[in-house]
Amino acid sequence: MAQGMRSLSVSDRIGMVKIYKLMKKEEFISQIAKLVSFETVTGNVAENSEALSYVESLISKDAEVKRIKNKDAEILIAGNSNIMTPDVGYMVHMDVVAGKPEQFKVSIKADKIFGRGTSDMKFSIPIGISLLNQLIATKSKITFSLAFVNKAKGVCQLVITAKGSPAHASRPWVGRNALDMLSTLSVELLKIYGKNNIKENWNTTMNTGQIQGGISINQVCPVAVMKVDFRYPETDSIEKITKTVSGIAAKISNNITIEKASTGLPTFTNTDLFVVKDFLKTMEKAYGKKIVVTHTYGASDARHFAKFNVPVLMMKPMGGEIHSETEWVSISSSLKFYDGLLEFIYGQN
């Protein structure tokens, strides 16, 4: 890594800081392999908790560590000081989408390490642990707690329930079919949002994830539920989307109710901010090439900072095939990412 910290001393930037222990390639591979072996599927509380215990075992004993349980989830927060209000926050998530048993065992081909969650986003955990341990060992005054793309779409998930009245299928005019109401609503919504689903764009998209209803084929359905997922840019809002859906639903029937399931604001960061420019400059040095700032279409945990106007950039090493059987992340790119982050953080002194 001619441009990385492994050959260019971080002291050039921060002034003779002792490097405690740079994470080695073998260490990164070993830790990510172990992390992938935990089947941390969302909802598997026991497995997620066990994985967090493994992570905690890797963190310096001098760190401040909190583990918090919230209903069926558990989170871990670790830092060198002021863990709830750090200078630098580093967010990761442990949960992954479901996969086949063989996907929870890593394989390595050339520079790529394959396995469930390698790219989304278990690669980041060994990096975050090493950054924290380094800061603790060098007694850095920078406070750090174990987020970075220019924009991410917000998420608005709605649960729409239609109530009709039952009747026999031979006499549908006697009842009111709840499924018909939702079908009509879906068609009308697709007239607005459907064109955005055809190709890549930066407009609000709509996905009908579930439609459930009916007891038997020969009965007019009395109750039906439709679950719709909207992903929207900073020019749209949860309120606008909900108002649109409610307005159309009201024209169809006054027996349609709408509830919010999961919502989140999109993120937007001013790339002219000094800290953003500094970050990009440092990362360009680590990678030896220009960093392109763009937007992304998925929702992100960083959305929780949006309402507080906290600057958020999201960046990751080279990887691909997220949520597929061939998900991978580049080993060398991950180590360059680590080098860049380490230099950037120390540069905040």
TrEMBL record:
InterPro entries assigned: Bact_exopeptidase_dim_dom, Peptidase_M20, Peptidase_M20_dimer, Peptidase_M20A
Names of the cofactor(s): Zn(2+)
Homology family: Belongs to the peptidase M20A family.
Keyword rRNA-binding: no
Protein's UniProt name: Peptidase M20 dimerisation domain-containing protein
PANTHER family reported for this sequence: ACETYLORNITHINE DEACETYLASE, PEPTIDASE M20 DIMERISATION DOMAIN-CONTAINING PROTEIN
Residues making up the signal peptide according to the UniProt record: none
One GO MF term attached to the UniProt entry: metal ion binding
Positions of the Peptidase M20 dimerisation domain: 152-252
Entry superkingdom: Bacteria
Record keywords, A-Z: Hydrolase, Metal-binding, Zinc
